[in-house]
Design brief:
Elements lengths: L3 H8 L3 E11 L9 E7 L22 E3 H9 L4 E5 L9 H9 L3 E6 L11 E4 L17 E6 L3 H10 L7 E6 L4 H14 L3 E3 L3 H4 L4
Parallel strand pairs: 2-4, 4-5, 5-6, 6-7, 7-8, 8-9
Antiparallel strand pairs: 1-2, 1-3
Family: Belongs to the radical SAM superfamily. 7-carboxy-7-deazaguanine synthase family.
GO molecular function: 4 iron, 4 sulfur cluster binding; carbon-nitrogen lyase activity; magnesium ion binding; S-adenosyl-L-methionine binding
Pathway: Purine metabolism; 7-cyano-7-deazaguanine biosynthesis
Length: 210
């Protein structure tokens, strides 16, 4: 059972429900191929039915971990740190990112943007979901927009979201993994007709790495 003191520390972002942490190669988007330390934070109520880490949804399954330990582990491996989830912005990221910044880390976040942006970020990968749309504040700050394509209707949603980000934001269409064989030809055709978009692949899955 989580004590009141622990709950308070979680609310303040001094402890976070850590699902897993690992050093690997970024497989998606602009920084694909880059070595990075991933911090996966538990807790998400966005509820994508095709999510490939549903075990991250219930924050109660993942032990509250002091950010000092998380920062120590991350900076021992890499100067590039990716915070993902779950939905990391469920929690206050201020203390974690400040600690990483103090160690000289470049900090990236992968988020649906469904919650208020907290923390200091060098790179924001925004991946909006239909069930819980991003807050207005995050759109102009996104460095890349990663739209997951599960069916044909997702192209329309992708365009709606692309209209909200800055003109410098890099636009990606990425097939949902289980539908990649069906959707990839459609994505390729779409990008060729609409070259403002780029194709993103989950290359880490092809490489069979985390």
């Amino acid at each position: 059972m989580i004590t009141e003191d622990t709950r308070r520390l979680v609310d303040e972002g001094i402890m976070l429900p850590l699902m897993e942490e690992f050093y690997t190669i970024q497989g998606e988007g602009f920084h694909k191929g880059t070595a990075a330390y991933f911090i996966r934070i538990g807790g998400c109520d966005v509820g994508c039915h095709w999510c490939d880490v549903k075990e991250s949804w219930d924050a109660g399954l993942h032990p509250p971990t002091h950010i000092g330990k998380i920062i120590e582990n991350a900076t021992a491996y890499s100067d590039t740190v990716v915070v993902t989830g779950g939905e990391p912005l469920t929690w206050d990221m201020t203390q974690l990112t400040q600690g990483l910044k103090n160690k000289g880390s470049k900090i990236h976040i992968e988020t649906s943007g469904a919650y208020k942006l907290s923390g200091q970020w060098d790179w924001i990968c925004l991946s909006p979901k239909k069930k819980k749309l991003p807050t207005d504040e995050i759109y102009p700050l996104a460095n890349e927009l990663k739209m997951i394509i599960f069916n044909k209707h997702d192209f329309k949603f992708a365009e709606e979201q692309a209209a909200k980000v800055s003109e410098d934001c890099i636009l990606y269409l990425q097939p949902e993994w289980s539908k990649r064989d069906k959707m990839m030809p459609l994505i390729v055709d779409y990008v060729m007709k609409n070259p403002k978009w780029k194709v993103s692949l989950q290359t880490h899955k092809y490489l069979n790495i985390p």
